[in-house]
Write a structure and sequence with these properties.
18 strands; Rossmann fold; 2 domains; 19 helices; about 475 residues
Length: about 475
């Protein structure tokens, strides 16, 4: 098949969360299966300045209609591997910024124009390159209008650019809602801006467009596909989701074992396997030294890597300050995002420097060290569409301590509920349940034989995209 993916980020070019990992790994797995892949993403400043684009020159010039104006853009074309082409859509006005989506305090005021331009550019480049896609796969709200732009361009030019479209919801909480006046930038027919189309409480919603107009709609785990049909998890979109149930599929993500594999991970000071964990002890010692702690510390080390948003359950971690201050353990937190959480965790670490370590930054190498060096990985998410870190953790022999929501339910087996098969600890995302989960972790860590058994079972699970990609191939085939 000839398959196009469009997303607002892609590993290793730019990553703020699991979206970048998932799209990159899926595209790579499809290419490995012999499909021809084209992947589109914005050409952000950090991407163009990075090593992957060094020395490249623009391959195409674009002229994109935006309301009553036409805006120019450039395209860089990369060929990182057999069967995979990456197109970077560039316009300095929109993408020459330090951060991809927001200032650090609030979303960019022109995110509507930025991502309308990007999506229109994807369609225009499909026309110029004559790719003739079988599937156009669009990811999250930043690509929600693509199915409409595709069909509008096909009507205008009398061509077929893609046979079928797929829209994946990676997180239904992020919806791309903009004022009604933003619709003028789309140049789409007025009749689409209604309650049955893009209109959402007298505003324009890009996520809704993807849900309503794509041929197939997916999300990133079976449990999350069920959850988003409810008011509790649907974030106001449960009614819209209800109109597409026949075309809704919950397909579990996998992990890229070329990147996340403790036996080969170049980011680590030592490699290890389920049969030889000596390297994990060296990673643990290195992680402790990073924060000035004794490398021979015997208590449990809790790790956490996430975007600093309320959805990640950060308030539950801060609500357990007494546990981390009192118990013989260590806590390492890596991430960044909302300023109030950055400040709160810095203050927490400053108050307990011998117990708590915090790195407020995005750091790929450090995230690998936390996964490899911790004994438990914390994911107290209030909701979690799929989650990747709980799968990384199991692959690295780090027992996940997770809330019982979304993809966490689909990928972690509670070792108390299923003693013979358990690979982690699970709790309801409430303070008292999280606190009880931490106590269960202490108890498990104290029983060395039981902990080693959980660790071994976790490392033997197969979360690779080799398995996960088959579900996408089947979906594409059914759509066609």
């Amino acid at each position: 098949m000839r398959i196009v993916h469009a997303a607002s980020e892609l590993f290793p070019y730019l990553k703020t969360g699991g979206l970048a990992d998932a799209v990159a790994a899926l595209a790579g797995a499809l290419a490995d299966k012999g499909h021809e892949l084209a992947v589109f993403m914005p050409g952000y400043r950090s991407v163009l300045d990075g090593p992957h684009v060094a020395g490249a020159k623009p391959s195409h010039k674009l002229k994109i209609e935006m309301g009553e104006s036409f805006l120019a853009g450039d395209v860089y074309t990369l060929h990182p591997r057999e069967g995979l082409t990456i197109y970077l859509i560039c316009r300095e006005e929109f993408f020459d910024r330090k951060l991809p989506y927001w200032t650090g305090e609030r979303d960019y005021d022109d995110n509507d124009a930025r991502f309308i331009f990007f999506q229109k550019a994807v369609v225009e480049l499909l026309r110029l390159t004559d790719f003739k896609a079988d599937i156009l796969h669009c990811h999250d709200w930043q690509c929600g209008l693509l199915p409409l732009f595709l069909r509008d361009a096909e009507r205008r030019y009398g061509v077929t650019l893609a046979l079928k479209t797929v829209f994946t919801i990676h997180n239904i909480a992020y919806q791309g809602i903009f004022p009604r006046k933003s619709y003028a930038l789309t140049n789409l027919p007025d009749e689409l801006m209604t309650i049955d189309g893009l209109e959402y409480y007298d505003q324009m919603c890009m996520l809704k467009a993807g849900i309503v107009y794509a041929d197939k709609v997916t999300t990133v785990s079976p449990t999350y596909a069920k959850e988003i049909q409810t008011p509790e998890f649907g974030n106001g979109m449960d009614g819209v989701i209800g109109t597409r149930l026949e075309d809704l599929h919950g397909l579990l993500n996998g992990i890229d074992t070329a990147v996340w594999n403790p036996a080969k991970d170049a980011h680590l000071p030592a490699r290890f396997t389920a049969d030889d964990l000596a390297g994990k002890e060296l990673c643990r010692a290195k992680l402790l030294k990073e924060f000035g702690w004794a490398a021979k510390f015997k208590g449990p080390v809790f790790g956490m890597v996430c975007r600093f948003t309320p959805a990640k359950g950060l308030d539950l971690v801060l609500g357990a300050k007494e546990f981390f201050a009192k118990e013989n353990c260590r806590l390492v937190v890596l991430g960044g995002g909302e300023k109030k959480y950055e400040e709160a965790f810095r203050e927490f670490a400053a108050a307990h420097p011998t117990k708590v370590g915090v790195c407020v930054r995005l750091d790929e190498a450090m995230s690998h060290l936390v996964e490899a060096g911790a004994d438990f990985f914390l994911m107290p998410s209030l909701f979690e569409p799929c989650g990747l870190n709980q799968m990384y953790s199991q692959a690295y022999g780090t027992v996940p301590l997770v809330s019982n929501v979304g993809g966490l339910v689909d990928t972690v087996i509670d070792c108390d509920a299923s003693p013979a098969t358990g690979t982690g600890l699970m709790f309801a995302p409430k303070q008292e349940d999280f606190n009880a989960g931490l106590q269960r972790a202490l108890k498990l860590h104290a029983d060395k034989a039981a902990y080693a058994a959980v660790q071994r079972r976790a490392m033997q699970r197969d979360f690779s995209w080799t398995n996960a990609v088959a579900a996408y191939e089947q979906l594409y085939t059914e759509a066609l």
